[in-house]
Design brief:
Blueprint: E1 7-11, H1 16-27, E2 31-36, H2 39-48, E3 53-57, H3 63-76, E4 82-85, H4 99-127, E5 130-135, H5 148-168, E6 173-178, H6 186-193, H7 195-201, H8 204-211, H9 217-229, E7 234-235, H10 240-250, H11 252-267
Parallel strand pairs: 1-2, 1-4, 2-3, 4-5, 5-6, 6-7
């Protein structure tokens, strides 16, 4: 996949990984529609990228907003070639989360991907080409200490990306699934710089920052775009995640025991 001349949509592009991916795409010669709930932030990022980028503010778990993104892409640049389902939320901590918190995590982290695919895949099948990039998490291959909704929905995001690849991979549609560990984002900084925020987010934030190196959004974007260029399904900005995943599969009970010990160390 050469992204030069292609048209892409990137969600969650007002900051962090999404903004960095959008910037990398423009540098590589793509034209991009950026989406985010934060209208001012996403507009600012799009303006900084010049004529090859435009922005749309809205909730990308809403099918009507996704359709607006597609319509804007077609009006400004042409049919959508790549969709980066990057927007995500952390959700509640555990079983005490409300139904609304669980529903929000499922909507943004999973159903936003499903709804985008429902709108894009028919056209991609007609044209014989398309690329869906799902930003999941290492939590989708392993788990997330401290947040049941995040762990569950990121597993589901990986599962949906797998299904898309199996179902449409021989019909011209490429799929990648991005599974990083810690990334320097606003959420992570809030949890490490403020004692109040850290207390509210623990042990989830501590699990992220102690599990491995925290990468910059630019570093992760570089890995994503390299993975797309290679048309690689599993994109791992933290390559050690593959070893962890293999260990998990080789002895599930031992892995669970180790995760419980890790959790206990964080809580102490």
């Amino acid at each position: 996949m050469d992204v030069a001349g292609k048209v892409a949509i990137v969600t969650g592009a007002g900051s962090g990984i999404g903004a960095a991916v959008a910037g990398g795409l423009v540098v590589a010669g793509a034209r991009v529609v950026l989406a985010d709930l934060d209208a001012a932030a996403v507009h600012g990022v799009a303006e900084s990228l010049g004529a090859s980028a435009v922005s749309v503010a809205g909730d990308v778990s809403d099918a009507a907003v996704i359709q607006t993104l597609i319509d804007r892409s077609e009006a400004e640049f042409g049919p959508v070639d790549l969709y980066f389902a990057n927007a995500g939320i952390f959700g509640a901590r555990g079983l005490d989360g409300s139904d609304a918190e669980w529903a929000a995590a499922l909507d943004v982290n999973v159903m936003a991907h499903v709804r985008a695919a429902q709108l894009l895949v028919p056209g991609w099948l007609e044209r014989g080409a398309g690329y869906f990039v799902s930003t999941a998490s290492a939590a989708g291959l392993l788990t997330q200490i401290g947040s049941a909704p995040y762990a569950m929905t990121k597993h589901a995001a990986v599962g949906f990306a797998e299904w898309l690849s199996v179902t449409y991979g021989d019909k011209g549609i490429r799929v990648s699934c991005v599974c990083p560990m810690g990334v320097d984002t606003a959420l992570l900084r809030a949890g490490t710089e403020s004692s109040v925020a850290a207390a509210a987010a623990e042990p989830a934030i501590r699990a992220v920052v102690t599990a491995g190196k925290v990468l910059s959004a630019d570093e992760v974007a570089d890995e994503i775009l390299a993975g797309v260029a290679a048309e690689r399904f599993l994109i791992l900005p933290h390559p050690e995640v593959l070893d962890m995943y293999r260990f998990k599969g080789s002895d599930y009970d031992r892995w669970l025991s180790g995760m419980r010990r890790f959790q206990a160390s964080l809580e102490s």
